[in-house]
Design brief:
- The chain is α+β, with helices and mostly antiparallel strands.
- It has helices at about 5-10, 55-75, 95-105, 115-145, 150-160, 170-180, 190-200, 215-235, 295-300, 305-315; strands spanning about 35-40, 45-50, 80-85, 90-95, 265-270, 280, 290, 325-330, 335, 340-350, 355-360.
- It has a 5-stranded mixed beta sheet with strand order 7-11-10-9-8. Strands 1-5-4-3 form a 4-stranded mixed beta sheet.
- A hairpin with a 2-residue loop joins strand 8 and strand 9.
- Helix 3 packs across helix 4, helix 4 crosses helix 6 (about 170-180) and helix 4 (about 115-145) runs parallel beside helix 8 (about 215-235).
- The longest helix is centred in the middle third of the chain and has 33 residues, at about 115-145.
Length: about 375
């Protein structure tokens, strides 16, 4: 992926490619102004949730049921949203804490796990959906720079004129991408719960379950790319339907998506439902790593070069965290890449000061698919 600041600077040189929209990104339809918020690390933050806390009765009637109605109309965008860098103002992913509580109570009520685990999974769900919108934004920008045409603004203007609230195919793919990513870390029962939540969403969103497989997903990616750029490509006599052309090549997804470049803002609105302020930790470095006995045994079986690489990685982690996907959330753990095939799984203590190295093995052995 190219540096997003460089991409934006290129877009500024294209007439009408950037259009400043005056609105508060912290305030979608169901959120009030003046929200407390904090900039998040692109890595998943650790939420310190009160495990023994019971939600007051009014939360169900005043907030959760209102979100039910909003979710039925707007899908995941009722819970989190992405603001395009094409707007020219504040941009990125916005996730309210209230949405994590909603996911716990609506989507994951029957999921076996602690409240901490449910909130972390809820965050991952929202983040992955919105990351797809970021990837689409980037894809469109790459075509715009090549075509020297304002594809995003033209499509946005058309949607406004026609009263099209959202692109069904984009929301279908965003949910499919989210399912594809979460499938790596969920049990079969967890997958069923998330798929059920998707199927209860509005048109487009609910169709995400139908294009999770590789062939369907890529086919739909090509169609979405055409929605954004086909008209301007034809103006330049570029045939996007020519055999041998991979129109999806500008999509940076999964391993190629530099999540560090997309700002994430957590909106602290938990005081609205009587929960004490939720603490969040952002992982900047890992000062202490303790190797479990099982890890040490597995490590001794590795090639000498891999053991040396692990020792080097440990020294680097004391200073900083590698960029995603070299270091990423994986279920209740974190995964660190030793090379293209080998992974180390790390588990943090509650205060994040001491981490355990609990397993090491190949990509497949470690459950990464």
């Amino acid at each position: 992926m190219q540096n997003i600041n460089d991409v934006i600077e290129c877009l500024r040189r294209i007439k009408k490619a950037m259009g400043y929209v005056e609105y508060n990104p912290l305030m979608p339809p169901a959120i009030s102004r003046n929200q407390k918020h904090e900039q998040a690390s692109p890595l998943t933050p650790i939420f310190h949730t009160p495990e023994e806390f019971d939600y007051p009765d009014y939360v169900e009637f005043e907030y959760f049921q209102a979100i039910d109605r909003d979710y039925a109309e707007r899908g995941i965008e009722a819970l989190a949203w992405y603001v395009s860098f094409h707007n020219g103002g504040p941009w990125g992913i916005y996730i309210p804490v209230l949405s994590l509580a909603y996911i716990e109570n609506r989507f994951l009520k029957r999921y076996r796990g602690t409240r901490f685990r449910k909130w972390q999974l809820g965050y991952d769900l929202l983040q992955q959906h919105e990351m797809f919108h970021f990837a689409t934004d980037y894809m469109c920008a790459q075509w715009e720079i090549l075509l020297q045409a304002p594809c995003w603004s033209a499509l946005t203007d058309y949607r406004k004129r026609e009263g099209i609230g959202y692109l069904e195919i984009e929301e279908k793919l965003a949910n499919a991408y989210m399912l594809r990513q979460l499938n790596k870390q969920l049990t079969p029962s967890g997958r069923r719960l998330i798929r059920t939540a998707v199927e209860c969403s509005p048109p487009g969103y609910k169709d995400g379950t139908a294009c999770v497989d590789d062939l369907s997903f890529k086919s739909n990616l090509a169609e979405l790319s055409k929605v954004y750029v086909a008209i301007h490509a034809l103006e330049k006599d570029i045939n996007l339907l020519a055999s041998g052309v991979d129109i999806t090549a500008f999509y940076s997804l999964a391993d190629n998506l530099d999540a560090n470049q997309c700002p994430i803002t957590i909106i602290h609105n938990e005081d609205r439902f009587g929960i004490p302020q939720i603490g969040t930790n952002f992982i900047l470095k890992i000062p202490t790593i303790v190797e479990t006995e099982a890890f040490q045994k597995a490590c001794k079986k590795l090639d000498k070069s891999l053991r040396q690489r692990w020792e080097k990685k440990k020294r680097l982690l004391v200073e900083t965290i590698p960029r995603h996907p070299e270091f990423e959330k994986f279920a209740d753990l974190f995964s660190l890449r030793l090379n293209d095939n080998y992974r180390v799984h790390l588990r943090p203590s509650n205060d994040m000061t001491v981490w355990e190295a609990i397993a090491v093995g190949t990509h497949k052995e470690m459950g990464h698919g």
